Amino acid sequence: MNLTDLTAAELGKKIQEREVTAVEAARDALARIRERDRDLNCFITVDEEAVIRRAEQVQKEIERGELTGPLAGVPVAVKDNICTKGLRTTCASKILYNFVPPYSAEAVERLEQAGAVILGKTNMDEFAMGSTTETSAFGPARNPWNRDHVPGGSSGGSCGAVAAGECACALGSDTGGSIRQPSSFCGVTGLKPTYGTVSRYGLIAYGSSLDQIGPIARDVTDCALLLEILASQDPKDSTSLRREETRFAQALKTDVKGMKIGIPRDYFGEGLNGEVGKAILNGAEVLRDQGALVEEFDLSLVDYAIPAYYVIASAEASSNLARFDGVKYGFRAEAYEGLHQMYKKTRSQGFGSEVKRRIMLGSFVLSSGYYDAYYLKALRTKALIRQAFDRAFSKYDVILGPAAPATAPRLGESLKDPLQMYLGDIYTVSANLAGLPGICLPCGRDGKGLPIGLQLLGDCFREDRILQAAYAFEQAGERSGAYV
Ligand code: GLN
Hints:
Blueprint: H1 8-16, H2 22-40, E1 43-45, H3 48-63, E2 75-79, H4 106-113, E3 117-122, H5 156-163, E4 169-174, H6 180-186, E5 189-192, E6 212-217, H7 220-230, E7 260-264, H8 274-289, E8 293-297, H9 305-320, H10 338-350, H11 353-366, H12 371-395, E9 398-402, H13 418-423, H14 429-434, E10 438-445, E11 451-458, H15 463-476
Parallel strand pairs: 2-3, 2-4, 7-8, 7-9
Antiparallel strand pairs: 1-3, 4-6, 5-6, 5-10, 9-11, 10-11
The structure holds glutamine.
């Protein structure tokens, strides 16, 4: 048996009980990566020596009784847009191919304080823009269940690594679904917290008003435990919030009897794959059997979420990415004449085409002649979407639906038509626009054996409810096992 086939909580327990050491866990994870990642390409950077050194140090602290938490000694993979001090952080872009951050993200600091061993940096869509991990400058990652298919994106490397048993858990980031959609495609469990719950300090910004870091793991318990570690108010991030209650694992103790679950009728129209739709409705039945009250309702405005999201996310991206100019860090073009040409050549050569598309789109919607027509209108739409969710959550505890309209597409299928790819985010982006927490967990397979994910959305600050429903569902059905 490989130790990375255990969940993080199971592995952490064995380490606490001195059954195995943090060093053995790290060695097993590294061996798995060596064995499987040549094909899967889920990792961009792994510094094996540093991992072992850190595991040895953690093991000493465990033996001295200084680290007693549930994840002490557990190897955790980190998406490559989250800064790690001294460990290269590329955002899967040529423009940051050599960037070694002088500091760690707050989320990474918190993991390390809890005794986690950072295993390496995972592959992603360039600057988290994409839904397949194919826009990575380091080549696409592959889906462990079928290597001809994508793992989803943009946190495809993190989700693929967890599904492949290269690690028990990982960090991802979610701006418009990038934790939930690849979790769905890879058959793992991923949670996007309420906006402001996890500090964004050290997360390289895509759409700052939408971005959240969150856990990806093999079960709901691990997600709850990781979120307990990650959630904090951080003075270094002005949008981070003080949460009254962050003992998320407590929520797993309550059953779903009497819980009110709403299914948006408008999620089940044209465009949803039949097998996926059926699996989701079966999933709802599982919760109904356990005493939840399940009914359909009209959420409204569903068709407006994608255009509003792409306008806002691109606007923020175009501003956030202005800092990559060849002066301060990362790649700089080799030959140029004067400062302006240096900027132009650096950015032309350093960014990939999807990133350039977003910068152009974002600059366009923010330009003076179009600001009102596009950007302001998108902000108004965002407010209306938030209101639609407020109405829904006055009636329901949890909203249940698919995470993606279909299972993982084949490699190369999506990039041909970016607009079509954007439409695939229909079920995930509205949670980011409204700041809501969402979890995606496995709920079956399609005819080809590819995983299908069930998404549960909660009102702001109600991670407890989605965790509670997700845990009840998981207990009733399959747990997402590592592939063999
Ligand atoms: N697919 C979406 C996009 O490309 C979401 C990405 C994300 O959540 N980082 O913008």
